[in-house]
Amino acid sequence: MTSADPVPGPSSGNDVREPIWARPETRRRSTLSRAAIVAAAVDLADREGLAAVSIRRVAAELGARAMSLYTYLDSKDDLFDLMGDAAAGETLLPEPLPGDWRAALTLVAEATRDQIGRHPWVVPLMAEGRRYGGPSGLRHVEQSLRAVAGLGLPPSRQAQILMAVDDYVLGYLTRRSVGAAADVSGTLEHPYYRALLDAGEYPLLRDAMATGGYAEDSFTEGLNWLLDGIEASLPDPARTGSAAAE
Prior knowledge:
Blueprint: H1 34-48, H2 55-62, H3 66-69, H4 76-88, H5 101-118, H6 122-127, H7 135-149, H8 155-178, H9 180-188, H10 191-198, H11 203-210, H12 219-232, H13 236-245
Helix pairs in contact: 1-2, 1-4, 4-7, 5-7, 5-8, 7-8, 8-12
């Protein structure tokens, strides 16, 4: 959902790769196509992780020679860009979006959460510096900006709101992926830590553990807290417009 620089792929200095979408797909008499290659790569990454994806391995999944894939793309970087854009397409929402910015942003955040939940390899791609540079990714960013366009804020402020929501979604998914809640609960059940808690040295942590605070998993509640903070920071006319939309 971020509106950061949409140029895909890692780059150094001013050396930016030409996006694969700027290169027309070569048509050959073959069952292969960019779409088929990307679908096979996405399926492989979903099953075995991003590290398993290579031109040779994807070709094997398709029953083709590795060299035949280079008719449709130049490198694994191209493949990763296409995979990221295919995943971004899953975040696109039916139009029109709700008129209330909070409701619209909630739908965008939920779609992003669900998409990355299905394709956790998207996060490593983003960590490499890849952005929403393909047609689906750009439509996703445009749609996300439309969710807050009615607030009457400067474009830079709109982008900051989207990035804050993005940060929440990615943080939530990171915590879930590493099992932070289970780790805290499990670790503190060890007799050593249990003795410390029972001795009263950490009363606030003890109470949080006793009430299941670290075991609860509420994406929506946390998102609402964030949106409450964003709404409180808005100019009065924007807040009034939000209340009217509700």
